[in-house]
Amino acid sequence: MGRVALVTGGTRGIGAAIADRLKMSGYRVAAVFQGNFTAAEAFHRETGIPICQWDVADFSACVNGIAKVREMLGPVDILVNNAGITRDVMLHKMTAEQWNSVIATDLTSCFNMCRAVINDMRERNFGRIVNISSVNGQRGQFGQTNYAAAKAGILGFTRALALESAGKGITVNAVAPGYIATEMVGVMDPGLLQRIVAQIPVGRLGRPDEVAHIVQFLAGDDAGYITGATFSANGGQYMA
Ligand code: NDP
């Protein structure tokens, strides 16, 4: 039987492309979503991938959710921490709620989910964790102190957990996409988006599958010597 992969935010956008690609590669996949049942059910009908609803910002919900996935499919071998939100506003107008919700959903979720799967991985001496960061965590972005802090935090979290886990056959890596054509980008002001695309050397937005392809590679046995790394997929927008 194939390994078990769990993708948070796996019912829409980049996460849906990741879940789909992992399924096509032979993994037994489940996808977590928060509240958009219409999108989640459509995704399930189209792909047959089981969907689970919980809030990744909630520690107990993650522990309980992982226990259910374990009952349904077995222990999680591959965890993709992809769920994320934006609440863009300049710092001098940002509310504590806008700060806290982005930090909790985009960063604390990585702790919650990893904490819930790591002991199973350590016991079985195998694991693949892929955390989805962002180009805006690598370089900062106007109006995104909350998001940039969370996404930069993911990079430090990834490296520290990679060190702790390397001796146990567990790799921990980050993928930092640039601007990818999903609903998250679809809600941006069209004029702003046009100006951003004009600054992307390859001259277009990325496709969700171009991120999914990297995750598929990192999930595989051939990527066992890669850990603590950040893979950028940003059309040349930021070269670190
Ligand atoms: P979308 O907004 O298209 O999809 C977000 C997904 O995350 C949905 O499935 C959503 O569930 C889920 N989700 C959100 N909050 C929670 C929560 N609290 N608990 C559980 N699930 C949750 O996002 P994208 O596909 O665009 O982005 C995916 C990831 O990639 C994010 O981390 C984002 O920050 C990152 N990224 C995106 C870029 C882009 O240009 N699109 C660029 C760089 C990074 P539901 O459908 O129920 O709302």
TrEMBL record:
Keyword field contains Oxidoreductase: yes
PROSITE patterns attached to this UniProt entry: ADH_SHORT
UniProt domain Ketoreductase: residue ranges: 3-183
Recorded GO MF terms: acetoacetyl-CoA reductase activity
Entry EC no(s): 1.1.1.36
UniProt keyword GTP-binding, yes or no: no
A GO BP annotation: poly-hydroxybutyrate biosynthetic process
Keywords: Oxidoreductase
Cellular component, GO annotation: cytoplasm
Similarity annotation: Belongs to the short-chain dehydrogenases/reductases (SDR) family.
Annotated protein name in UniProt: Acetoacetyl-CoA reductase
Gene this protein is translated from: phbB
